Amino acid sequence: MNFKVFIPAMLSASLKTLSLFSLTLLFSLPLGLILCFARMSKKKVLNLPAKIYILLMRGTPLMLQLMFIFYGLNPIFGVQPPRFASAVIAFALNYAAYFAEIYRSGIISIPTGQYDAGKVLGFSKRKTFTIIILPQVIKRVLPTMSNEFMTLIKDTSLAQTIVIVEIMRTTEKYANVYVSAIPFGVAAIFYLVMNAGIGKAFSFTEKKLSYYK
Amino acid sequence: MKALEIKNLVKKIDNIKILNNISFSVNKGEILTIIGPSGSGKSTLLRCINQLEKIDGGTIKINSDVLVDTNNNGDVMYAEKNLRTQIGLKVGLVFQHFNLFPHFSVLRNITESQVKVLRRSRDEANNIAIQLLEKMDLKSKIDAYPCELSGGQKQRVAIARALAMDPEILFFDEPTSALDPKLKGDFINIIKELSDGKMTIVIVTHEMNIAKSISDRVIFMEEGMIIEEGTPEEVFEKLKNERTKFIF
Q1: CA nearest to B239, candidates B18, B33, B43
Q2: Is pLDDT at B248 greater than 50 in this prediction?
Q3: Inter-chain residue contact A121 with B51, CB threshold 8 Å
Q4: Is pLDDT above 60 for B245?
Q5: Mean pLDDT throughout A67-95?
Q6: I need a labelling partner for B12 at 20 to 30 A (CA). Which of A194, B168, B186, B226 fits?
Q7: Calpha distance A127→A132 (Å, rounded)
Q8: Is the distance from CB of B44 to CB of B18 less than 8 angstroms?
Q9: In whole angstroms, what is the distance from residue A90 CA to residue A72 CA?
Q10: Architecture of domain A3-208
Q11: pLDDT digits (tens, 9 = 90+) for B111-154
């Protein structure tokens, strides 16, 4: 085992993993909120497509969606998204569906009295949502979100199927080169460290928001 | 002068008339109590006046501004949005469960709508909130969060929050249901104090004692209709004679 080669390779692979992770969140968190509004809308033209979309995204494997975007768009529509962009698009579209449902669970858990109080005090619908409802929703969905963030870190390993050199792809390569199981252990540690960081960040935020019930 | 005028109000839920041809008015500075058994529609009536529910017929006038009117064809016509908001700001409501904002401190519960809706400066809103909290004997709780307050304290914050918007009529939905007997006395004192300040007050309750001790006028509702109306003495005398089944 030549760690001087292997570890730097793993570090640069981690960078790939982390950038896929952050870009996915950057797009899917707001997209999920929009999707959630559509899903909760009373208008069928909005809620029906949202329901179908969420079913499709949650009901088929992320790996299939990923392959479809990278390999399938070209033969059908004649567009070929680049490798990394394909991964970001597939991950963001998929995670937005889960986030939409998480937001929805948070929103429906807020007592209707909060909306009534907002209305009676003269807040517009938009202000009622942003000032009164959303902050409470964020607090309520944090535990579920931390689950989802950790899953996303691990799901990035699926990107290797379209040959993105992230942690798992690098691990397999060096395991083959050195005919060794050590890279798998190292990969586990890399994932663990990242997720421990995420866990820590979430418990910190939860604590920050624990001043009210 | 009338602060509130309601004519032939009809409210249906699933085609059942929850409120059936309700007509009454409230004079400026008056304390009106609406009593009746649960399910009689009195809370729904409050929600209609506070625009939390849409009505299916009739007229609601607040301070001679028409919130909603119904023409001869039965078309219900609400005022346009700006006027509706304006009228909404003239009425305040203290909810049965107070509905304070749990993520805001006591101070912010009272100032947020002043700043974001009435566009007062933070300083001005804070000063108004502090004065109200002093009046409510709650200044020590200014930085507390709702979850740290007792039921009576929450109610006083809710009253302060409503008063901060300078309403002309203040509505109370079952204000004593969450209070123990001593706090009920405190509540009556607060109402009396507000009334001395010429506030128009409408209280929905099923507690006869509250109605007896503070109201200028009482309305008795049952099954979505007004059965009796008059001074507390008149109404209770009639009820005693005609409805002995109703437990006092």
Answers
A1: B33
A2: no
A3: no
A4: no
A5: 94
A6: B168
A7: 7
A8: yes
A9: 12
A10: Orthogonal Bundle (1.10)
A11: 999 999 999 999 999 999 999 999 999 999 999 999 999 989 99
CA distance A35 to chain B (A): 26
SS3 state of residue B197: coil
The pLDDT assigned to B243 comes to: 58
pLDDT mean over B189-199: 88
- Residue extents of the structural domains in chain A: 3-208
Structure tokens at B83: 């006027």
Structural tokens at position B56: 């299916």
**pLDDT for the residue B196:** 87
How much is the pLDDT for B211?
86
**Is residue B48 a contact partner of residue B19, using CB atoms and an 8 Å limit?**
yes
Q: Does A126 touch chain B (CB under 8 A)?
A: no
Amino acid present at A112: T
B51–A119 CB contact, under 8 Å: yes
Check if the beta carbon of residue B212 is closer than 8 Å to that of residue B195: no
Is residue B54 packed enough to be buried (19+ CB in 10 Å), middle (13-18) or exposed (0-12)?
exposed
Q: Edge-to-edge strand order for the sheet containing B2-13?
A: B16-27, B2-13, B57-62, B65-70, B76-78
Strand, coil or helix: B59: strand
Does the distance separating the beta carbons of B89 and A122 come in below 8 Å? yes
Residues B149, B154, B156, B159, CA torsion sign = positive
Interface contact flag, A131 B89, Cβ < 8 Å = no
Q: Do A131 and B97 touch (CB under 8 A)?
A: no
Of A113, A135, A139, the CB nearest to B95: A113
Query: Can you tell me which residue has the tokens 């004192």?
Result: B189
- For B17-48, what is each residue's pLDDT tens digit? 999 999 999 999 999 999 988 888 999 999 99
pLDDT at residue B157 tops 80? yes
For residue A102, the one-letter residue type is: I
Residues B30 and B230: their CA atoms lie apart, in Å, by 13
Candidates A122, A135, A136; nearest CB to B88: A122
CB contact under 8 A, B113 and A121: yes
- Tokens 């730097």, residue? A8
Closest CA of chain A from B139, distance in Å: 19
Select from B47, B100, B103 the residue whose CB has the most chain A CBs within 10 Å, as the one to mutate to test that interface: B103
B34 residue type, one letter: I
